[in-house]
Amino acid sequence: MTKKTPLSGLGNTAALSVRRPGGRGMEPFLFNTFNTIFMVLLVIVTLYPFLNTIVVSFNAGNDTIRGGLYLWPRDFTLQNYKAVFASGTIYNAFLISVARTVLSTVLNIFLTTMLAYTLSRRDYIFRKLITTIFVLTMYFNAGLIPGYFLMKDLHLINSFWVYVLPSLISAFNLIVIRTYIYTIPESLIESAKIDGAGDFRIFWRIIFPLCKPVLATIALFVAVGAWNSWFDAFLYTSSRQELSTLQYELMKLLSSSMNANSNPSVANGVGVEHSTQVTPISIRAAVTIVASVPILLVYPFMQKYFVVGLNVGSVKE
């Protein structure tokens, strides 16, 4: 008779473990299947509104009113985009928007990072006071009228720089970048000082390159905010057409199209013929696509930095 040992019954279990890596049976397969289905549905739900907006923008305005548009235009037309680009001012407005977006992003990133590096130095005795002052600006605002008079006293009314100078420093971006700088080993800075490097050299050669992930995230925030802004153009430069931004021109066009149904002359005024008038719905879809395309072209190149920079720069252990 063969004598059984306490471990003799584990043979089948060991063999089963070899045949089933992980020993969890169908659990990984079910999880991966469910996860894939869920993510596909999430992508469809996320993309469908944008795809439907594209369909509406390429569909005739009078036909759009009937509804029932899903994934393909029923009455294809370029009339909505012709209405958007009919005005010659929109091209100059596009250049103004590009210029303000680029300048605002570059200057905001550079100056905010310099200030964040200064406030991250523990030997700087005023860092807590200055940080507190900047944080207070996130909760309290002087208001619209005092802000307008401040721009007037600074001689920024009807000036291109009214788009750039007020947004040079952002308190939220400052806190995020400063928190990220705390994660950089202090030994790197001390080694650079021992080698004779000054503060600006340390910032430019060490801190700035190591902050690429969080700077890409902040750059995306600043660029989207500057590109989508139109209210400052309405407040400060509305009397100078050559300083109008793309978003402000599109907002005026959308307002004009709201009267297109009841007043055909207004429709003609925005470059729309009587036979194929645009509607507020169709012109709004075309305006949305025109305003979104530039940001959509930039975002894929910054996506790899987005999540990493936001997570690392927002929490300090």
Tag the structure with descriptive keywords:
317 residues; mainly alpha; MetI-like fold; flat; disordered C terminus; transport; MetI-like
Task: Explain what you see.
By secondary structure, this protein is mostly helical. It has 2 domains: 22-80; 81-314, MetI-like (MetI-like fold). The chain contains 15 helices and no strands. The protein has helices at residues 11-19, 27-57, 61-64, 79-85, 89-120, 127-136, 144-153, 171-182, 186-194, 199-210, 212-228, 231-236, 246-257, 264-269, 280-314. Helix 5 packs across helix 8 and helix 5 packs antiparallel against helix 11. The protein is flat, with a radius of gyration of 28 Å. The chain starts with 10 loop residues before the first helix and ends with a helix. 24% of the residues are buried. Mean pLDDT is 80; it is low at 6-11, 13-23, 265-275 and 313-317. It is found in: Cell membrane. Its main location: membrane.
